[in-house]
Amino acid sequence: AFKMYDLDNDDMISRDELLAVLHMMVGANISEEQLTSIAERTILEADISGNQKISFEEFCKALERTDVEQKMSIRFLN
């Protein structure tokens, strides 16, 4: 799942990469503001090192702590 979000293959998931994947997943079914909110909240919750990106290790730890995949989906907004 990590590689699906790491679009530039730099072993980090950035806010822009999250936004791009969210756009692919939901298209025009959600506002840009809501997508940005999901991406920023996901980074905030998963980014342990504070570099505004999610490493593979942080991704794994976040999945252990919470259901990040669900939070990165439309269900999160309901």
TrEMBL record:
Key words, A-Z: Calcium, Cell membrane, Cytoplasm, Lipoprotein, Membrane, Metal-binding, Myristate, Nucleus, Phosphoprotein, Protein transport, Repeat, Transport
InterPro entries hit by this protein: Calcineurin_B_homologous, EF-hand-dom_pair, EF_Hand_1_Ca_BS, EF_hand_dom
**Which residue windows are coiled coil?**
none
Kindly give the Pfam families that the UniProt entry links to this protein: EF-hand_7
Any GO CC annotation of this UniProt entry: cytoplasm
A Gene Ontology molecular function term for this protein is:
calcium ion binding
Which branch of life, at top level? Answer: Eukaryota
Q: Which residues form the EF-hand domain?
A: 1-28, 34-69
The answer, when asked if Cell division is one of the entry's keywords, is no
**Locations listed in the record:** Cell membrane; Cytoplasm; Nucleus
Q: Name one GO biological process term.
A: protein transport
Q: Mind telling me which PANTHER family this protein's record contains?
A: EG:114D9.1 PROTEIN-RELATED
Family as reported in the entry's similarity comment: Belongs to the calcineurin regulatory subunit family. CHP subfamily.
Return the protein name: EF-hand domain-containing protein
Q: Which organism is it from?
A: Rhodnius prolixus
